[in-house]
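Re: the 607-residue chain
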Amino acid sequence: MTALASRVAGARLVIIICVLLIPIVLLSFLRIQSHRESIERTDKELAGVAVSDALVRSLVGIASGETQAIGLRQNLASLTAPASRIGVEKHISTLSLAYSSPVMDRTYMVDLTAETLHEVGVHSNLIMDQEPESFFLALHSIMHMSALVREFHEFQSGLERAIQSSGIDQVEFKQLMVRVGEMTAIIEESADSLEHAKEESAAPASYAAAEALLADLAQDFDVTADVVGKAKPGSEPIILSMMARQNFDASGKYRQVLDVWDQTSKRLLALLTDRREIMQHELYMHIGVSLLCVLLGAGAALWMFASTLKRLDLVEAEKERADTARDESDIARAETERINGEVAELNRNLADKIRLLKDAQDEIVKKGRMEQMGQLTATIAHELRNPLGAVRTSAFLVEKKVRGLNLGLEAQLQRINNGVQRCDNIITQLLDYSRNKPLQCNPGNLDEWLSRVVSEEAAKLPRSVNIELVLGLDERQVPFDEARLQRAIINLMANATEAMTTGPKRDAADAPAEHKLWISTRVDGADSVIIQVKDNGPGISTENLAKVREPLFTTKSFGTGLGIPAIEQIAQQHGGRLEIHSRPGEGATFEIYLPFSMTGQLGADAA
């Protein structure tokens, strides 16, 4: 099993190496294909040169009248294969059929042969060759020479027709001189193409013969144009007729054109042949290099497979020993984890029991303190309310006796009454917080009750406080103790009013335009409702927010610090809770959560 696994791993390594060879093979194939296409294009151009050579000789033979129809067809008979290679077999067939006509119009045959030669240059890519020298040679040999033969034939034919008729008149003279100008322009273009090819050539000396022949042709036409230009008015026809008989040797001119073609086509053929040999050599070299790379890659893969089998076997054996040791270690670790888990579970249970014990102890201590506070509060309330009652009664009698006497004691008497009322409120808060009376909860319309309580309390608040009441319980019945919950709501409204009207001053830019108090109700899920009291006062600092629930904590210069704890106690007695949200400068929000059902809480209170 171990040996099999090693060999499988080695085989995978060989496959990976072979896969890595795929891009090399693909690139080599593409490169070889590119070389083959280049060779095919060069072969096509070589075929084009062969077809062009036969057509140029036919063109010159037709124009000069030296080649008969039989000779023309013989010239085309050998072009079947190269014409098919470059895709002009239809043009050659058409030309051969025209050569077979019993009545052959030389001008038409010259034009048709020149057009066929142009098609050969296009289809064989000779006049679109990417190499500059061969491009200019093809342009000179195929395009310019065929155009020169056509123009010279048209000139010679027109001259002969004019002489054989009634002589050369002025109109015919102008037409013939236009032909001379066109031939001169063609020779100049041909000379430019030949010059460009020479500049791009690695053997410029090979162009000397063609340049000399082309210069002779140009000189003949220049002499003609110069003689005619110096002639007296009216003597041009006579001079041109003399020139036609003496200087315009048509056969000689055609032989010169054919000699120029022989020189340039020879150079073009040599360029294409050398190029093909170079590309063929590069193709063979690339095939050899590609095969060598593939063989080296395959050999390296086999060598790596053979040399790594032993190492893989050793690695597999070591792996099996390591797996055995790891399994033993896993068993020991699992046992250790099981023991650690049991110990952790015991620790968690112990921590939970310690926490429960601490909570029970805290509850006992809290109940003891509450009992002591209740006893102390009852004693203080009893001892203070009697003298406070006497003070309130005395103040009332004094106020009654001095009423209408304008003694200026109204402010002092009001201060006495306010002090008595404040002391009475403090005693009431202490009694409410220390007592643990059972709730008197009855299901009722909380929205309707809250609207009534808020309306009554709003009349006691400063006019600067704007109250917005939003009720959202939709006639839902909620069990609650009206007296206890009313004290909680009134306490929240009073705290919010004091915070907005007497709290810390804020910058004019941050201060609200008015003191606003939002009171709302809404359903929270399926088991409780929320009474929310929100203000736009200065808010509660983070430090004080953590302490406001503690009994006797207050930031006021007076007060017991039992307002918020008493509200929270009332919410908890209902089976709910109190949540406080505030940020400095953004007001404060108090939310009392009340459950829809209080069966468990009522039973606990009754007990």
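The beta strands are 442-445, 465-470, 477-480, 515-524, 528-535, 577-582, 588-595.
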